[in-house]
Write a structure and sequence with these properties.
Keywords: ATP-binding, GTP-binding, Nucleotide-binding
InterPro entries: P-loop_NTPase, RapZ-like, RapZ-like_N, RapZ_C
Strand content: 15-25%
GO molecular function: ATP binding; GTP binding
CATH class of the largest domain: Alpha Beta
Number of helices: 9
Number of strands: 11
Protein name: GlmZ(SRNA)-inactivating NTPase
């Protein structure tokens, strides 16, 4: 395989390198569902492939005369002794000029415990200990890989259909956009989103909750949004943070990162964060960034 964008098989015919997605994450977080979704979208999916064989799989795909143009590989702790080879394989792919994306499936400890208990199966790393011991060991093992992931999906509160919808939103397009952004409003009192790349705190803006006529509404309401952006610093913050995101987005593109989740928080995730998320998403969309807005905690109070 050459170091450019093509490989040279034995007959010296140049063939395009396949797209590569590596699916990993916590056991019980939905790796199989994510893999099945890509398979349904036409990807060639290999489950539990030893990481040392990933470069070989890519090379075989490159020699398929276009029949295997997109490859997804599921890598997890079931590989045991093979998992340590993943870092070496990733370095090998980079040296060969292969563009790879890592999708990491995350979930809370509570959700994972419930899922393992519901199917009455042990965690693959718990040994003679408890399920939580296996989860802790796996988190430690996957910590570095999670940090390198291009896309982190928290499935703690997602069902199978919602996870498939998230995968479809990221991979179903005919043409891969330069950058996709998810702008997520949330309430700090319900905890930080674990899949956030960037976190914005809107609690410096006066809370519409304390305005009786605005309290029943959300940040989607024009009166609430108008109140939020009439407060000192709100518009300036939106302007300056948008400029900062332009700088960050340019860096993400240079580094090949195609997905970013921006979490915008206020106390309850109902007023300020919702209004700010809507405006921020509109600014990003106007800059050519494909943007999805999610209001995680709206209606939760």
């Amino acid at each position: 395989m050459s170091t450019g964008t093509t490989v040279e098989p034995g007959d010296n015919a140049e063939t395009a390198i396949p797209e590569l997605v590596i699916i990993s994450g916590m056991s019980g977080a939905g790796r199989s569902t994510a893999a099945k979704c890509l398979e349904d979208l036409g990807w060639f999916v290999v489950d539990n492939l030893p990481p040392a064989l990933i470069p070989t799989m890519v090379e075989l795909g490159a020699r398929s005369q276009g029949n295997v143009a997109r490859i997804a590989v599921v890598v997890d702790v079931r590989g045991r002794q093979f998992f340590d080879a993943l870092r070496e394989s990733l370095a090998d792919l980079e040296a060969r000029g292969v563009t790879r994306r890592i999708v990491f499936l995350e979930s809370s400890d509570d959700a994972l415990v419930r899922r393992f208990e519901s199917v009455r199966r042990p965690h693959p790393l718990q040994g003679d200990g408890r399920i939580v011991d296996g989860i802790a060991a796996e988190r430690d093992l996957l910590r570095e890989l999670r940090g390198d992931a291009d896309l982190v999906i928290d499935t703690s509160s997602l069902n199978v259909h919602e996870l498939r919808a998230k995968m479809d939103a990221q991979f179903a397009g005919d043409e891969e956009p330069e950058l996709r952004a998810t702008v997520m409003s949330f309430g700090f009192k319900y905890g930080l989103p674990v899949d956030a790349d960037l976190v914005v705190d809107c609690r410096f803006i006066p809370n519409p909750h304390w305005v009786p006529e605005l309290r029943p509404f959300t940040g989607l309401n024009e009166e609430v949004s108008g109140y939020v952006f009439s407060q000192p610093g709100a518009k300036e913050f939106l302007d300056r943070y948008t400029e900062l995101l332009q700088l960050i987005a340019a860096g993400y593109r240079r580094e090949g990162k195609r997905y970013v989740t921006i979490a915008v928080g206020c106390t309850g995730g109902k007023h300020r964060s919702v209004a700010m998320s809507e405006k921020l998403a509109a600014r990003l969309a106007s800059e050519g960034v494909e943007t999805v807005v999610v209001h995680r905690d709206m209606g939760r109070e």
